[in-house]
Automatic annotation (TrEMBL):
Pfam families linked to this entry: Amidohydro_1
Domain Amidohydrolase-related intervals: 56-378
Domain of life: Bacteria
Taxonomic source organism: Luteitalea pratensis
Alphabetized UniProt keyword annotations: Hydrolase
Recorded name of the encoding gene: atzA
The protein's Enzyme Commission number: 3.8.1.8
Protein name according to UniProt: Atrazine chlorohydrolase
Length: 420
Protein backbone atom coordinates (compact mmCIF):
# COMPACT_ATOMS: atom_id res chain seq x y z
CA UNK A 1 0.00 0.00 0.00
CA UNK A 2 1.38 3.44 -0.95
CA UNK A 3 0.66 6.22 1.53
CA UNK A 4 1.30 9.79 0.38
CA UNK A 5 2.49 11.96 3.27
CA UNK A 6 2.16 15.73 3.05
CA UNK A 7 4.16 17.96 5.35
CA UNK A 8 5.05 21.65 5.47
CA UNK A 9 8.76 20.79 5.34
CA UNK A 10 10.63 17.71 4.19
CA UNK A 11 14.39 17.55 4.78
CA UNK A 12 15.90 14.93 2.45
CA UNK A 13 19.45 15.88 3.68
CA UNK A 14 20.90 14.72 0.34
CA UNK A 15 18.91 17.51 -1.37
CA UNK A 16 17.62 20.98 -0.40
CA UNK A 17 14.68 21.34 1.98
CA UNK A 18 11.31 20.77 0.26
CA UNK A 19 8.56 23.20 1.20
CA UNK A 20 5.07 21.76 1.18
CA UNK A 21 6.67 18.43 0.50
CA UNK A 22 5.24 15.00 -0.21
CA UNK A 23 6.68 11.57 0.47
CA UNK A 24 5.26 8.33 -0.92
CA UNK A 25 5.81 5.45 1.50
CA UNK A 26 5.38 1.75 0.76
CA UNK A 27 3.84 0.82 4.10
CA UNK A 28 4.45 -2.91 3.72
CA UNK A 29 8.15 -2.56 2.91
CA UNK A 30 8.77 0.38 5.26
CA UNK A 31 10.44 2.24 2.41
CA UNK A 32 10.22 5.62 0.77
CA UNK A 33 9.39 5.24 -2.93
CA UNK A 34 9.26 8.90 -3.98
CA UNK A 35 9.31 12.47 -2.66
CA UNK A 36 9.20 16.03 -3.89
CA UNK A 37 7.67 19.47 -3.52
CA UNK A 38 3.89 19.83 -3.65
CA UNK A 39 3.44 20.55 -7.33
CA UNK A 40 5.60 17.63 -8.43
CA UNK A 41 3.43 14.91 -6.87
CA UNK A 42 2.89 12.25 -9.53
CA UNK A 43 -0.36 10.72 -10.71
CA UNK A 44 -1.92 8.23 -10.34
CA UNK A 45 -2.36 8.99 -6.71
CA UNK A 46 -1.51 6.84 -3.74
CA UNK A 47 -3.78 4.40 -1.92
CA UNK A 48 -4.21 6.83 0.98
CA UNK A 49 -3.09 10.29 2.08
CA UNK A 50 -1.65 11.35 5.44
CA UNK A 51 -1.50 15.11 6.04
CA UNK A 52 0.99 16.06 8.76
CA UNK A 53 0.15 19.78 8.53
CA UNK A 54 2.89 22.10 9.80
CA UNK A 55 5.30 19.30 10.64
CA UNK A 56 8.82 18.66 9.37
CA UNK A 57 9.95 15.21 8.27
CA UNK A 58 13.65 14.35 8.44
CA UNK A 59 15.73 11.17 8.60
CA UNK A 60 16.19 9.45 11.94
CA UNK A 61 19.35 10.64 13.68
CA UNK A 62 22.49 8.53 13.93
CA UNK A 63 24.42 8.38 17.21
CA UNK A 64 27.77 7.28 15.81
CA UNK A 65 29.42 6.78 19.19
CA UNK A 66 28.06 5.50 22.46
CA UNK A 67 28.75 2.73 24.96
CA UNK A 68 25.37 1.32 25.94
CA UNK A 69 26.96 -1.12 28.41
CA UNK A 70 27.96 1.84 30.62
CA UNK A 71 24.39 3.13 30.94
CA UNK A 72 24.13 1.99 34.58
CA UNK A 73 26.86 4.57 35.38
CA UNK A 74 24.54 7.47 34.48
CA UNK A 75 25.35 10.35 36.81
CA UNK A 76 27.82 8.24 38.83
CA UNK A 77 31.05 9.77 37.52
CA UNK A 78 31.28 13.49 38.20
CA UNK A 79 32.53 15.95 35.58
CA UNK A 80 36.30 16.52 35.79
CA UNK A 81 38.70 19.22 34.71
CA UNK A 82 41.22 16.83 33.18
CA UNK A 83 40.64 13.68 31.15
CA UNK A 84 42.88 11.24 33.00
CA UNK A 85 41.42 12.22 36.37
CA UNK A 86 37.98 11.48 34.88
CA UNK A 87 39.20 8.11 33.56
CA UNK A 88 40.52 7.21 37.02
CA UNK A 89 37.17 8.10 38.59
CA UNK A 90 35.23 6.17 35.91
CA UNK A 91 37.34 3.03 36.32
CA UNK A 92 36.89 3.20 40.10
CA UNK A 93 33.13 3.47 39.76
CA UNK A 94 32.83 0.88 36.96
CA UNK A 95 34.88 -1.82 38.62
CA UNK A 96 33.66 -0.97 42.11
CA UNK A 97 30.05 -1.20 40.96
CA UNK A 98 27.86 -3.83 42.58
CA UNK A 99 25.38 -3.68 39.68
CA UNK A 100 24.20 -7.15 38.63
CA UNK A 101 23.98 -8.27 35.01
CA UNK A 102 20.22 -7.73 35.31
CA UNK A 103 20.80 -4.13 36.53
CA UNK A 104 23.25 -3.44 33.70
CA UNK A 105 20.90 -4.94 31.12
CA UNK A 106 17.93 -2.96 32.45
CA UNK A 107 19.98 0.25 32.17
CA UNK A 108 20.88 -0.64 28.55
CA UNK A 109 17.20 -1.20 27.73
CA UNK A 110 16.26 2.16 29.31
CA UNK A 111 19.04 3.93 27.39
CA UNK A 112 17.87 2.42 24.10
CA UNK A 113 14.34 3.57 24.94
CA UNK A 114 15.64 7.09 25.49
CA UNK A 115 17.45 7.02 22.13
CA UNK A 116 14.30 5.87 20.33
CA UNK A 117 12.13 8.45 22.09
CA UNK A 118 14.49 11.28 21.09
CA UNK A 119 14.74 10.47 17.40
CA UNK A 120 17.73 8.16 17.07
CA UNK A 121 17.49 5.51 14.35
CA UNK A 122 21.14 4.55 13.95
CA UNK A 123 23.91 3.70 16.41
CA UNK A 124 27.60 2.93 16.64
CA UNK A 125 27.76 1.10 19.95
CA UNK A 126 31.04 0.13 21.61
CA UNK A 127 31.27 -2.70 24.13
CA UNK A 128 33.81 -4.73 26.06
CA UNK A 129 30.95 -7.16 26.76
CA UNK A 130 27.93 -8.34 24.77
CA UNK A 131 25.35 -7.11 27.27
CA UNK A 132 23.91 -4.62 24.74
CA UNK A 133 23.63 -7.06 21.82
CA UNK A 134 20.24 -8.64 22.49
CA UNK A 135 18.60 -5.37 23.62
CA UNK A 136 19.89 -3.77 20.41
CA UNK A 137 18.53 -6.65 18.33
CA UNK A 138 15.11 -6.15 19.95
CA UNK A 139 15.13 -2.39 19.28
CA UNK A 140 14.32 -0.23 16.25
CA UNK A 141 17.97 0.85 15.93
CA UNK A 142 20.19 0.12 12.93
CA UNK A 143 23.95 0.22 12.97
CA UNK A 144 27.11 -1.40 14.24
CA UNK A 145 28.02 -3.00 17.55
CA UNK A 146 31.80 -2.77 17.99
CA UNK A 147 33.61 -5.23 20.22
CA UNK A 148 36.42 -3.17 21.71
CA UNK A 149 40.04 -4.25 22.21
CA UNK A 150 42.45 -2.73 24.67
CA UNK A 151 45.83 -3.73 26.06
CA UNK A 152 49.15 -1.92 25.77
CA UNK A 153 51.32 -4.97 26.39
CA UNK A 154 52.72 -6.21 23.09
CA UNK A 155 52.93 -9.78 24.35
CA UNK A 156 49.14 -9.82 24.81
CA UNK A 157 48.29 -8.48 21.34
CA UNK A 158 47.65 -11.82 19.60
CA UNK A 159 45.53 -13.17 22.46
CA UNK A 160 43.45 -10.00 22.85
CA UNK A 161 43.04 -9.66 19.09
CA UNK A 162 41.73 -13.22 18.93
CA UNK A 163 39.38 -12.73 21.87
CA UNK A 164 38.05 -9.51 20.37
CA UNK A 165 37.35 -11.14 17.01
CA UNK A 166 35.68 -14.05 18.77
CA UNK A 167 33.54 -11.61 20.79
CA UNK A 168 32.45 -9.84 17.60
CA UNK A 169 31.74 -13.17 15.87
CA UNK A 170 29.56 -14.31 18.78
CA UNK A 171 27.74 -10.97 18.76
CA UNK A 172 27.15 -11.39 15.01
CA UNK A 173 25.83 -14.91 15.58
CA UNK A 174 23.38 -13.59 18.18
CA UNK A 175 22.23 -10.83 15.81
CA UNK A 176 21.77 -13.37 13.02
CA UNK A 177 19.84 -15.70 15.32
CA UNK A 178 17.53 -12.78 16.15
CA UNK A 179 17.12 -12.13 12.40
CA UNK A 180 18.46 -8.63 13.04
CA UNK A 181 19.50 -7.49 9.58
CA UNK A 182 19.70 -3.84 10.64
CA UNK A 183 22.73 -4.44 12.88
CA UNK A 184 26.18 -5.89 12.31
CA UNK A 185 29.06 -6.61 14.69
CA UNK A 186 32.64 -5.47 14.19
CA UNK A 187 35.85 -4.85 16.14
CA UNK A 188 37.47 -1.61 17.31
CA UNK A 189 40.72 -0.75 19.09
CA UNK A 190 40.06 1.49 22.12
CA UNK A 191 42.69 4.25 21.83
CA UNK A 192 46.40 4.66 21.02
CA UNK A 193 47.29 5.17 24.70
CA UNK A 194 45.61 1.92 25.75
CA UNK A 195 46.09 -0.38 22.76
CA UNK A 196 49.46 -1.64 21.51
CA UNK A 197 50.67 -1.06 17.97
CA UNK A 198 50.50 -4.76 17.00
CA UNK A 199 46.95 -5.01 18.38
CA UNK A 200 45.83 -1.92 16.43
CA UNK A 201 47.56 -3.31 13.33
CA UNK A 202 46.06 -6.77 13.60
CA UNK A 203 42.55 -5.34 13.89
CA UNK A 204 43.20 -2.93 10.99
CA UNK A 205 44.21 -5.88 8.80
CA UNK A 206 40.84 -7.38 9.67
CA UNK A 207 38.84 -4.42 8.36
CA UNK A 208 40.31 -4.70 4.89
CA UNK A 209 39.67 -8.42 4.76
CA UNK A 210 36.05 -8.16 5.87
CA UNK A 211 34.99 -4.75 4.58
CA UNK A 212 33.72 -3.96 8.08
CA UNK A 213 33.89 -0.53 9.68
CA UNK A 214 35.93 0.25 12.75
CA UNK A 215 36.33 2.96 15.34
CA UNK A 216 38.99 4.40 17.65
CA UNK A 217 39.02 7.09 20.33
CA UNK A 218 41.64 9.50 18.97
CA UNK A 219 43.15 12.85 19.88
CA UNK A 220 40.68 13.08 22.74
CA UNK A 221 42.84 14.92 25.27
CA UNK A 222 46.09 16.92 25.60
CA UNK A 223 47.42 14.12 27.83
CA UNK A 224 47.15 11.68 24.89
CA UNK A 225 49.28 13.96 22.73
CA UNK A 226 51.94 14.18 25.43
CA UNK A 227 51.94 10.41 25.88
CA UNK A 228 52.36 9.70 22.16
CA UNK A 229 55.01 12.42 21.80
CA UNK A 230 57.19 11.49 24.76
CA UNK A 231 55.70 8.55 26.70
CA UNK A 232 55.30 10.73 29.78
CA UNK A 233 52.54 12.43 31.73
CA UNK A 234 49.31 11.37 33.44
CA UNK A 235 48.64 8.45 31.05
CA UNK A 236 52.03 6.89 31.85
CA UNK A 237 51.21 7.15 35.57
CA UNK A 238 47.70 5.73 35.07
CA UNK A 239 48.95 2.75 33.02
CA UNK A 240 51.60 2.02 35.65
CA UNK A 241 49.03 2.21 38.47
CA UNK A 242 46.72 -0.16 36.56
CA UNK A 243 49.52 -2.66 35.94
CA UNK A 244 48.95 -2.09 32.22
CA UNK A 245 52.31 -0.48 31.41
CA UNK A 246 54.69 -2.26 29.01
CA UNK A 247 58.40 -1.52 29.55
CA UNK A 248 59.05 -2.23 25.87
CA UNK A 249 56.62 0.49 24.74
CA UNK A 250 58.42 3.18 22.75
CA UNK A 251 56.66 6.52 22.21
CA UNK A 252 56.13 7.03 18.49
CA UNK A 253 56.96 10.73 18.81
CA UNK A 254 54.02 11.50 16.53
CA UNK A 255 50.64 13.20 16.67
CA UNK A 256 47.70 10.74 16.74
CA UNK A 257 46.79 10.79 13.02
CA UNK A 258 50.38 10.37 11.72
CA UNK A 259 50.81 7.57 14.28
CA UNK A 260 47.80 5.66 12.92
CA UNK A 261 49.04 6.31 9.41
CA UNK A 262 52.45 4.87 10.30
CA UNK A 263 50.72 1.76 11.65
CA UNK A 264 48.74 1.35 8.42
CA UNK A 265 45.58 1.69 10.50
CA UNK A 266 44.06 4.75 8.86
CA UNK A 267 41.36 3.89 6.32
CA UNK A 268 38.06 5.06 4.88
CA UNK A 269 36.04 2.75 7.13
CA UNK A 270 37.46 4.23 10.34
CA UNK A 271 35.44 6.37 12.78
CA UNK A 272 37.85 8.74 14.53
CA UNK A 273 36.03 9.58 17.75
CA UNK A 274 36.41 12.88 19.64
CA UNK A 275 39.38 14.53 17.88
CA UNK A 276 39.37 17.52 20.23
CA UNK A 277 43.13 17.90 19.69
CA UNK A 278 43.22 17.38 15.91
CA UNK A 279 45.18 19.99 13.97
CA UNK A 280 44.26 21.32 10.54
CA UNK A 281 46.82 19.06 8.83
CA UNK A 282 45.45 15.98 10.58
CA UNK A 283 41.90 16.90 9.57
CA UNK A 284 43.03 17.22 5.95
CA UNK A 285 44.70 13.80 6.15
CA UNK A 286 41.48 12.28 7.49
CA UNK A 287 39.55 13.95 4.67
CA UNK A 288 42.00 12.60 2.07
CA UNK A 289 41.72 9.08 3.48
CA UNK A 290 37.91 9.29 3.64
CA UNK A 291 37.70 8.58 7.38
CA UNK A 292 35.00 10.08 9.62
CA UNK A 293 35.40 12.38 12.62
CA UNK A 294 32.75 11.70 15.26
CA UNK A 295 32.11 14.74 17.43
CA UNK A 296 30.87 14.19 21.01
CA UNK A 297 31.26 17.72 22.42
CA UNK A 298 29.12 17.32 25.55
CA UNK A 299 31.23 14.36 26.65
CA UNK A 300 34.44 16.30 25.92
CA UNK A 301 33.20 19.04 28.22
CA UNK A 302 32.17 16.55 30.93
CA UNK A 303 35.56 14.80 31.03
CA UNK A 304 37.63 17.97 30.76
CA UNK A 305 39.10 17.04 27.36
CA UNK A 306 38.52 20.34 25.58
CA UNK A 307 36.41 21.62 22.71
CA UNK A 308 36.48 19.82 19.35
CA UNK A 309 37.51 21.80 16.24
CA UNK A 310 34.02 21.73 14.73
CA UNK A 311 34.36 24.53 12.18
CA UNK A 312 37.85 23.37 11.18
CA UNK A 313 36.58 19.83 10.58
CA UNK A 314 33.87 21.06 8.22
CA UNK A 315 36.34 23.44 6.55
CA UNK A 316 38.77 20.54 5.97
CA UNK A 317 36.06 18.62 4.13
CA UNK A 318 36.28 15.56 6.36
CA UNK A 319 33.10 13.54 6.85
CA UNK A 320 31.62 14.55 10.22
CA UNK A 321 29.28 12.48 12.38
CA UNK A 322 27.84 13.10 15.83
CA UNK A 323 27.83 10.93 18.96
CA UNK A 324 26.95 11.30 22.60
CA UNK A 325 29.48 8.89 24.13
CA UNK A 326 28.15 6.98 27.14
CA UNK A 327 25.85 8.00 29.98
CA UNK A 328 28.97 7.94 32.19
CA UNK A 329 30.04 11.22 30.55
CA UNK A 330 26.90 12.88 29.23
CA UNK A 331 23.55 13.94 30.66
CA UNK A 332 21.43 11.95 28.20
CA UNK A 333 21.54 10.17 24.83
CA UNK A 334 19.37 12.81 23.15
CA UNK A 335 21.11 13.81 19.91
CA UNK A 336 18.97 16.94 19.60
CA UNK A 337 20.60 18.11 22.85
CA UNK A 338 24.02 17.23 21.40
CA UNK A 339 23.16 19.26 18.29
CA UNK A 340 22.11 22.24 20.43
CA UNK A 341 25.49 22.14 22.18
CA UNK A 342 27.30 21.83 18.83
CA UNK A 343 25.37 24.83 17.57
CA UNK A 344 26.57 26.85 20.61
CA UNK A 345 30.25 25.98 20.14
CA UNK A 346 30.14 26.31 16.33
CA UNK A 347 27.75 29.20 15.64
CA UNK A 348 29.11 29.80 12.14
CA UNK A 349 28.66 26.27 10.79
CA UNK A 350 25.44 26.13 8.72
CA UNK A 351 22.57 24.38 10.46
CA UNK A 352 22.15 22.14 7.41
CA UNK A 353 25.73 20.90 7.80
CA UNK A 354 25.22 20.03 11.47
CA UNK A 355 21.97 18.26 10.63
CA UNK A 356 23.68 16.32 7.83
CA UNK A 357 26.43 15.25 10.24
CA UNK A 358 23.83 13.88 12.70
CA UNK A 359 22.06 11.93 9.94
CA UNK A 360 23.84 11.11 6.67
CA UNK A 361 27.35 11.54 8.13
CA UNK A 362 26.81 8.84 10.74
CA UNK A 363 24.93 6.56 8.34
CA UNK A 364 27.73 6.76 5.77
CA UNK A 365 30.39 6.23 8.42
CA UNK A 366 28.60 3.08 9.63
CA UNK A 367 27.89 1.99 6.03
CA UNK A 368 24.18 1.64 6.65
CA UNK A 369 22.41 2.03 3.33
CA UNK A 370 18.97 3.59 3.42
CA UNK A 371 19.61 5.40 6.71
CA UNK A 372 20.38 9.09 7.22
CA UNK A 373 18.57 10.44 4.16
CA UNK A 374 15.05 10.65 2.74
CA UNK A 375 15.25 9.25 -0.78
CA UNK A 376 13.68 6.49 -2.88
CA UNK A 377 14.78 3.21 -1.30
CA UNK A 378 15.53 4.78 2.09
CA UNK A 379 13.80 3.63 5.26
CA UNK A 380 10.52 5.26 6.28
CA UNK A 381 11.69 5.01 9.90
CA UNK A 382 12.07 8.80 9.83
CA UNK A 383 11.34 11.57 12.32
CA UNK A 384 8.31 13.86 12.38
CA UNK A 385 8.72 17.03 14.46
CA UNK A 386 6.28 19.92 14.94
CA UNK A 387 8.08 23.28 15.23
CA UNK A 388 6.49 26.08 17.23
CA UNK A 389 4.45 28.51 15.17
CA UNK A 390 6.42 31.34 13.60
CA UNK A 391 9.56 29.29 12.87
CA UNK A 392 11.02 30.49 9.57
CA UNK A 393 14.29 28.51 9.45
CA UNK A 394 13.33 24.95 10.32
CA UNK A 395 16.90 23.59 10.11
CA UNK A 396 18.11 26.21 12.57
CA UNK A 397 15.25 25.28 14.93
CA UNK A 398 16.14 21.59 14.71
CA UNK A 399 19.81 22.10 15.57
CA UNK A 400 19.43 24.90 18.11
CA UNK A 401 16.13 24.61 19.94
CA UNK A 402 14.63 21.16 19.46
CA UNK A 403 16.12 19.25 22.41
CA UNK A 404 12.68 18.95 24.01
CA UNK A 405 11.39 16.04 21.91
CA UNK A 406 7.91 15.78 23.40
CA UNK A 407 6.40 16.39 19.93
CA UNK A 408 8.51 13.74 18.19
CA UNK A 409 6.77 10.96 16.25
CA UNK A 410 8.03 8.29 13.87
CA UNK A 411 6.84 8.46 10.27
CA UNK A 412 6.65 4.67 9.79
CA UNK A 413 4.35 4.36 12.81
CA UNK A 414 2.07 7.14 11.57
CA UNK A 415 2.01 5.55 8.11
CA UNK A 416 1.22 2.10 9.53
CA UNK A 417 -1.71 3.65 11.40
CA UNK A 418 -2.93 5.38 8.23
CA UNK A 419 -2.63 2.13 6.28
CA UNK A 420 -4.62 0.08 8.79
ZN1 LIG B 1 33.75 6.49 23.92
Amino acid sequence: MIIRVHSRWVIPVAAPVLRDGWIDVDSARGEIVGLGAARSAPQPGPDAVLDLGDAVVLPGLVNAHTHLELSHLAGAVAPADSFVSWVRAMLGVRFGSSASVADVTAAVVRAIGQMEATGTAGVGDIGNTDVAVLPLAASSLSGVHFREALGLKRADAARIGGETRLGAALAQTRLTEQRSTRLVASVAPHAPYSTSAPLIQSLAAGYEATGAVSSIHLAESPEELEFLASGTGPFRALLTDLGAWDDTWVPPGLAPVPYLQQLGALHARLLVVHGTQLGAGELRTLADVGATVVLCPRSNRWVGAGVPPVAAAFAAGVRVAVGTDSLASVEDLNLFAELAFLRRIAPDVPAAALLAAATRGGAQALRREGLGVLAPGATSHAIVRVPPTGIADVEQWLVADAADTGDLRWLDELVAHAAS
